[in-house]
Amino acid sequence: MMSLYGVQLECLISIWGILILLVDAFKPIADKRMVGYLAAGFVAAALLYSFAIQPVPDAFFHGMFRLDPFALYFKRLFLLALAGVLLMAAEFSPRIESGVAEFYALLMFCAVGMLLIASVNDFILLFVSLELVTITFYVLASYLRRQVPSLEAGTKYLILGALSSGFTVYGIAYIFGTTGTTNFDKLAEILQSQAGPPSSAFVFGMLLVLTGLGFKIAGVPFQIWVPDVYQGAPTPVTAFLAVGSKAAGFALLLRVLYTGLLPVSLSWNALIAVLAGATLLYGNLGAIPQHNIKRLLGYSSIGHAGYMLMGVAAVNALGAGAVLFYLGQYAFTNLCAFLAIIAVTAATGSDEIPSFSGLGKRSPILGLALFLSMMSLAGIPPLSGFFGKFQLFAAVIQRAQTDSRYYVLAAIGAVAVVISLYFYLGVGRAIYLQEAEDATPIVVSKPMRFGLIVCMVAMIGIGIFQRPLVHASIMAAKVFSLH
Amino acid sequence: MDTLLTIAVLLPLIAAFVLFLFPANNPKAIRAVAMFATGVSLLITLTLFANFDRTKSGYQFVHSIPWLPSYGCSLKFGVDGISMTLLLLVGFVSFCGAFVSSEIHEREKEYYILFLALTTGISGTFCTMDLFFFYFFYELAVIPMYLLIGMWGSLPPGKHGRTKEYATMKLTLYLTAGAVLALIGLLGVYFVGGTLDIEKLQHNIWLARGTQLWAFPCLLFGFGFLASLWPFHTWSPLGYAAAPTAASMMHAGVLKKLGAYGIIRLALPLLPEGARHWANLLAILACFNILYAGWAALTQKDWKFVIGYSSVSHMGYVLLGIATLNVVGVTGAVLLMFAHGVMAALTFALIGFFYHQTHNRFVPDLSGLARKIPFIGVCMVMAVMASSGLPGFANFASEVLVFLGSWQQGSTLFRVATICAVWGIVVTATYLLRAVRTSFFGPFDEKWSMLKDAVTFKQKFPYALLLAVLLTVGFYPRVLTDIIKQSVATSIVSRFSTGNEANAAPTDTAYKGGTTP
What we know:
The complex is a heterodimer. Chain A contains 21 helices and two strands. Chain A has a domain at 267-483. Chain A is an all-alpha fold. The longest helix of chain A has 32 residues, at 148-179. Chain B is mainly alpha-helical. Chain B has one domain. Chain B has helices spanning 2-20, 27-51, 81-100, 108-127, 131-140, 142-152, 164-193, 198-203, 209-226, 235-242, 245-270, 272-298, 303-324, 327-358, 369-372, 374-387, 394-409, 412-440, 457-475, 478-492, 501-504, 509-515; strands at residues 60-68, 73-79. A two-stranded antiparallel ribbon of chain B has the order 1-2. In chain B, helix 6 (142-152) runs antiparallel to helix 7, helix 13 (303-324) packs across helix 17 and helix 16 packs parallel to helix 19. Residues 499-517 of chain B have low confidence and may be disordered. The chains are: A mainly alpha, B mainly alpha.
């Protein structure tokens, strides 16, 4: 019974997903949008319920599964992402030819994988839950199966995803082979007690695992798939990749680095810092010439992986908390952007940036939502992205007090902020400064309006009253013994 | 009394949120809310100024709300003589800016929301006593400015070959680049100093020399971008030329002063050793500001470009005053920030007045305007006189203080810089008088016969108010210099006083000679 307490959210979402499949098979509901709204509402209720769940100090399932504040923080984040994405999927459903209910169910099963990832404390569970997420994404990315870009996206994701899964499992084998355990806590003990540097076979295994995780978070040099997949995949799936999959990658990265491998992490931070700098520059420079908004957001998501890697590379409590805060506000910001994009493309049929011209006049709420989310991504106060970046920079500068090379990383981050403002303002310019060719107003459905308002209030609210989310992220980051 | 300051700062932002809920089809009510918010802010500021204890040197009207305990950050407002002066400036300029915004006739709701948010961003930066919120408010001004220029601005085609979209993007990117550079320096100060409280950092903490030497240029150039320090000034004339009247007023009048304020409030007292190390470079760059921008202004034909370059040139005097690191010079710099802010706002408002009717601000195209719009003409002549530093205007008192401070600094470099700066005044007078002579006097051109002058009290009011401020401070500068000097001496120059006691003494003969003409 005790173990069930740990996995209750996973059970809830799985059962609800299966129910949607069954009901659709036996008593199909004609209006598929309604099903999506219902699913989103249910997930939102589960999100509220999750605040009643208390963290448990001991691990479940023979030490494989943790329900600590860190896990709960991420579970709430994933439920939030799922609710938003289901709302998008409902709005998007008229453009899916068949299998709309399966689309919803797949999104939910994918989220179950993410919920498990939040609690991972063992390499075996890590691999299983990672595959649950990745394999459902193969299907989801190519869901518009008569459209070549979607198929291309699915194929690209499949090939690179399978490769990275292979790396991960191969790396796990090496780690198990050299240490005799797959459990993070035991691994940390073994590494602590070892005298001298870890064996090269162990280091090799660790590199392979990091490769697999680098693919998930879309960090350089494993970022090649991102722009094509983001552009080709159905927009709700793109949003889920940006919000859910990236957060899952960071949850695993933090867990692996800061619990299992903490004794050796400090000697690794130079590598991560270099990758962070490269990711920042690649993502932000690559975004400049883009004229498709989904592709732009793909590059931007690489850039944001770079910012968060800055926090990971700092290897301090401030940095871990900053990454968690950043992911939290990033979810609201990206959901807001993708909700607005779905509403606009439903009306214009195009996701090229020029088709957003004059959006501020065609639909004030969509224009404002997209503009605010772009500014939050760029990190302008009083929006939440500003404080997220502030904390990440603070973490890096704090580390720079002991290792002055980190000032270089902060400088690269500063350059990236200026570059990113240029292309985010490119979208802003289309929305407010340019005139629309076709000025017919865009109709926004009530649930969509609700979702947009929630996201906007959250962006501004977190940006001004940072304390609740800062508190939650610090509490969650406390599970790691960092200073 | 203590909460009044917080109200004065936050009222425009609250009004902006209120406007958000207003229907867009009632521009009169929207305008009334904006006027009310800026007007009440100005009244509160004047009340605070009247109640300001002129004998004390520290922060007054301090009000603090704990904000982020994990960072030791609190929403803390308070003013000393320096920020009180600048808060007055924000009050006057934002009120007059809202006044002359009656020329805006499309998307009024968005316009006033952005204008009010901008106002809070600026006054918040001047009044906050917390490093985090300093940066927060400082950056808050960026986006309203981008949209104000991009949506309501106008940039007549010219040799520059740029559009207003280019101008506003350039301005935004330059300012953000500077802000992020300053952020790195500020975070360094925070982690070495261990607190975000500016007052504590100013008085209780002395940072290691190494930190000071690298952090000072971060802050100097970071804030220098906004203060249009040469060679980072190129965004400025273009941005002003493209901006709508009220945005030009706010930007040239107040926002630009944020940069100089950042240097005075943070860079000097927190990093005194760094300041001493870099002061000579700052003085040299300031001379480039004065002469290079003055020379550039000589060749301009668009009224707004003339005034834009002129304001870059005037910021050179402010920066030179800062570089002296002595009471007289820094006091002069602060007073000049005030004087130039009022003067620049007045000039841009006047240009806006006739440009709104002529749709042309090309100096050679305008001729004899003073016949049709005598009131505006007279105001313009007076603004130009003020700008050229004629006695009787606040600019005179402040520029004299800057020259005295710079001469008193003593080194050959500063002597040369003073001579350059004095010549800068001749250059200023040349381009401004030439522009006024061409467009306001000379033969009257019939195509301007449709011009209407400001006749009603309501029309004349904003210009008269700004002129009155310039003249009041010009005839009685002590109304401001007394409080500025007090704060400069105790919280800034005292940090340099090791082995340099003479500068910190408030009874300085050269200083007295400068302020009581």
